[in-house]
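User: For documentation purposes, I need each entry recorded in a consistent format: the amino acid sequence on its own, followed directly by the corresponding structure tokens. There are two entries in this batch. Please keep commentary to a minimum and don't merge the entries.

Assistant: Recorded as requested. Entry 1:
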Amino acid sequence: MLTGRKNIAHTSRTPGKTQLINYYLVNGEWYLVDLPGYGYARISKTKRRQWRKMIEGYLQKRLTLQCAFVLIDANIPPQEKDISFINWLGESRIPFVIVYTKTDRLKPPEVEENIKKIQEALLQHWQELPRQFITSSIKGEGREEILQFINEVNEQYFKAL
């Protein structure tokens, strides 16, 4: 959705399609990095531990990482895996934002209710929540807001150099 190109990353109805760290250079200026999901893939416990180690290592040691985008399905209630991962990011002092995805699949009041429940679950651990974006790849909702945010983060990064 962010690049405006279909088929740049392969998706599947079966979770776990992304198994490696995939880098996409955008406009020759910044990288969009796709990491394996930490939640629903039907994989062995050994493979899950390997992915976790790879993901955590990347997020903790990547010196040029400016912000992680945590994608949360807005169609389902809060998931403990999402809450735990977000808490880990905070404990690890890794900057992140939350991106609610697939918001086109339910009626707006249902999406709002699910997001409210997710936020309430997070506020049991957080005093305030990070920046959040509501998106739909089908409708392109949230695209401009996220690209503007990335632009702001990049400007701050290059000013600091």
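Entry 2:
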Amino acid sequence: MMKYNRILLKLSGEALMGDRQYGIDPKRLAEYANEIKQITNEGVEVAIVIGGGNIFRGVAGASKGMDRVQADHMGMLATVINGLALQSALEDADIPTRLQSAIKVNEVAEPFIKRRAIRHLEKGRVVIFGGGTGNPYFTTDSAAVLRAIEINADVILKGTRVDGIYTADPEKDSQATKFDFITFDDVLRKGLKVMDTTAFTLSQENELPIIVFDMNKTGNLLKVISGEPIGTKVNL
């Protein structure tokens, strides 16, 4: 028995780079597709929000003098590109998939419609949400929480390259210690970085738990769904 029936998986755009400096690594896409297939085979309903940082990040563009709204729209388009790439990899693994976008790109993706998204999930299709929230000034973290609430997901799974939340950046501080469980209030009090503040607060207000885990370790996604103590769980 799986602990979670419907999940929202949040992936960063950088995760798709693999060992590259930019762009998309087909090998990494195939690995993710296999991980996702393991849980769909168990009947878990899967929705995905993916970032665009491997192609373009709106905040970075704005910091270099670009108009913020224009830069964020470019970032939204980058998430659609990543969504198409992930959709292709999932379908290569024989996983039925739908890509929905918060911005209109009707030739390549459906518009986001809540009831249609839920119906796809009920039919066993993986739904990828592209285009962020469709609004500038909001990150894909915010999009992930928003979509998770809209589809009534049981949990947000944030797949990263580290195995949870630490007292400090474990890649920079060898003395950093990992939390197996932490409350929303403790995250805020300790100043830990899980998601941007808007996304994190929205998750807290809607009592939607977040699990941060290492997506790059084979089998971890299935272990998380099964309820094994993988990563760090953030809850009330």
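Summary note for entry 2:
The chain has one domain: 6-235.
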